[in-house]
Amino acid sequence: MSVILIVDDDSDSLWLLQVVLEGRGHHVVLADDGHPALQIASRYLPDVIVTDWNMPCMDGDVLCERLRCYPALALIPIIMTSAQSAPSDRTGLWNIFFRKPVDIELLATTVDSLAAKRLENRSIRPHCGATPLCRWPAEALKYWA
Predict the structure, then answer these.
(1) 3-143 fold
(2) What is the pLDDT of residue 59?
């Protein structure tokens, strides 16, 4: 099961996306602004983030900037939604942009696809000779026993 974080100051949009994505088997967590979204993202490490651009305290572009600063959150795919066109100078902060009103089926299918890729990468990673969690070589551990 994938975790999807939805960030929007419009409660109707939050509710609609939550119902649709949970119906597709995702676990959905909600935030109404960028500040709580950062805390929730740090806690849940979502597989996909869907965020609105224009919010009262922290806009979606600032949220994306801050998410990209944290190594654990930097590679999470982000879908940006807005009633305005995407500014060309900020496009590298998110993976996909949808202009509102968004076709809910297209958005849900896109979330499914991005979440499936994340889950696939997560299952492959342990078999790729991942770096050990300890920075000390395994031989050094015998001196501590």
Answers:
(1) Rossmann fold (3.40.50)
(2) 86
